[in-house]
Amino acid sequence: MLDRRQSARDKVIYGGVAEISDDGATRDCVVHNISEQGAKIEFSSAVKLHKEQMSVAIARKGRSFRARIVWWRDFVGVAFSSESELPVSDLDERLRKSEQKKRQLQRRIKKLIGED
Q1: How far apart are CA 81 and CA 77, in angstroms?
Q2: CA distance 51 to 58
Q3: Are 102 and 25 in contact (CB under 8 A)?
Q4: Which of 37, 41, 83, 113 is most buried per CB count within 10 Å?
């Protein structure tokens, strides 16, 4: 497959949240690679994307991006717009809280099954 990217992408595994519709619906996602210009995103289950753009919040980077959908197969390839970084929103804070809650639950599960 011909690689038309302007810059190399870093292979990563970052948790994220994508706003996938105009009504504000969000879905958890995993970012598998990223560069300054774009990313490859995977959703945990089938997602119907009803628009050509979405916003993606990546907690580990502490940033939100406006992205244009370039291709869509098992993964979604997105290109960040030139005004890509979005202002900090409640989506970022909700994602951070969700990640924190996940870690707390994982610790609790380990304690309950005796892996402490």
Answers
A1: 13
A2: 20
A3: no
A4: 41
Could you give phi then psi for residue 45, rounded to 5 degrees?
-145, 170
- Tell me the pLDDT band of 16, cut-offs 50, 70 and 90: very high
Stated as kind and residue range, the H or E segment containing 96 is: helix 90-112
Alpha carbons 52 and 43: distance in angstroms, whole number: 16
Confidence of residue 59 (pLDDT cuts 50, 70, 90): confident
The structure tokens 């890509």 sit at 84
Stretch 45-50: mean pLDDT: 77
Please, which residues bridge with residue 38 across strands? 79
pTM of the full structure = 0.63
Q: How many Å apart are CA 41 and CA 13, to the nearest integer? A: 10
Rg (CA), the chain: 16
List the structure tokens of 23. 């009504």
